[in-house]
Write a structure and sequence with these properties.
The chain is an alpha+beta fold and about 325 residues long. Helices cover about 35% and strands about 20% of the residues. The protein has 3 domains: about 5-100, no CATH class; about 130-195, ATP-grasp fold, A domain (Dna Ligase, domain 1), CATH 3.30.1490.20; about 195-330, ATP-grasp fold, B domain (D-amino Acid Aminotransferase, Chain A, domain 1, 2-Layer Sandwich). It has 11 helices and 13 strands.
Length: about 325
């Protein structure tokens, strides 16, 4: 591929001028952006880093004046609001600049955990039974719901709003947790049937022709066998907590060949139904009977060098430079 002029777009939690980026490249928070920037440069591309906070003007200025060939899109929020993530890709479409990853349709679909389950259930993909509890119309009774249940914000990401008390065994605790999400997080909630089993993450690459990478699995090595196991906000972001309870991802434990084949086919079907483009990750649970349940989809997962997506690609023989080159190639056609 010929060298391209690539705008590396990512979101900022505060307003920060580009001349101050140098102070942040070596911090843990900027590691994914640094990995991409360095790799794109190594591949011979000209990279223009731009952090976006609460104004689209810097983005439009670069697009109009420097005319990048591509936006490598790592943005997940605008003005600290994740619900605006799809709008940024819609803006890229409006100004006719290609970008990596999924577009606004997929990002909107995947943000609504209830809507995705309705859509996929229509196409006979197994999902947990669920009820959506809107702030504007709180659920008053769950007497017919099958417990135990798992309760989380409907549209938040990165395990935000998930803790040990997200697992509930009765109506009273479920309604209390829903109330907490409504009032404290100011978010709608989804009440799901809790699927007791393995939690696996399947990474895929492609647009039409899809590559399915070896699955990763979340392990709970120090959590007692009789306790429910699931990812919380602390288990995702608190290293000391993860170490204490032996919580970490690794290569999925062996499964029957038929289950592995079914897993790959289900993930391809989900990827296509949710209009994911470029790269994505599907989160699932597998119960004791090897039944596969869709949990949620991540259209633009983290692709930092040492995180699950890149590790799965490497396991399949696609090293990091080749992975980033392929993502660029998929975006520019």
């Amino acid at each position: 591929m010929k060298p391209l002029k690539i705008l590396l777009l990512f979101d900022l939690a505060i307003e920060l001028p580009p001349e101050e980026y140098a102070d942040h490249w070596n911090t843990p928070d900027w590691k994914p952006e640094k990995d991409i920037k360095n790799t794109l440069t190594k591949l011979g591309h000209e990279v223009i880093p731009l952090g976006i906070f609460n104004s689209i003007n810097p983005f439009l200025k670069i697009v109009h004046e420097q005319k990048p060939d591509l936006v490598f899109n790592m943005s997940e929020a605008f003005n600290n609001k994740r619900e605006f993530e799809p709008n940024l890709t819609a803006l890229m479409q409006l100004v006719d600049v290609p970008f990596t990853g999924s577009g606004p349709l997929s990002l909107h679909l995947c943000k609504d955990k209830g809507l995705t389950k309705i859509l996929l259930g229509h196409h006979r993909i197994r999902t947990p039974k669920f009820v959506v509890a809107k702030k504007s119309k709180p659920v008053e009774s769950l007497k017919k719901f099958k417990f135990p249940a798992f309760i989380k914000p409907l549209q938040l990401e990165s395990s935000e709003g998930i803790s040990q008390v997200s697992y509930v065994e009765n109506e009273k605790d479920a309604l209390a947790r829903v109330k907490f999400i409504h009032e404290r997080l100011e978010a709608d909630a989804i009440i799901e049937e809790f699927i007791d089993g393995r939690e696996v993450y399947v990474s895929l690459l492609g647009n039409e022709k899809l590559n399915v990478f070896p699955p990763r699995e979340l392990f709970f090595k120090q959590v007692p066998d009789d306790e429910p196991k699931f990812a919380t906000y602390r288990s995702k972001w608190d290293k000391d907590y993860r170490k204490k309870w032996g919580i970490d991802t690794g290569w999925a434990a062996p499964m029957p060949t038929s289950t592995q084949k079914k897993l790959n086919e289900i993930c391809k079907k989900i990827y296509r139904l949710l209009h994911i483009q470029g790269y994505g990750r599907i989160d699932l649970r597998i119960d004791a009977q090897d039944e596969i349940y869709f949990i949620e989809a991540n259209p633009n997962p983290s692709i930092a060098k040492q995180e699950d997506y890149a590790l799965s690609a490497s396991k399949s023989g696609l090293e990091y430079e080749d992975l980033i080159a392929k993502i660029v190639s998929l975006a520019v056609g």
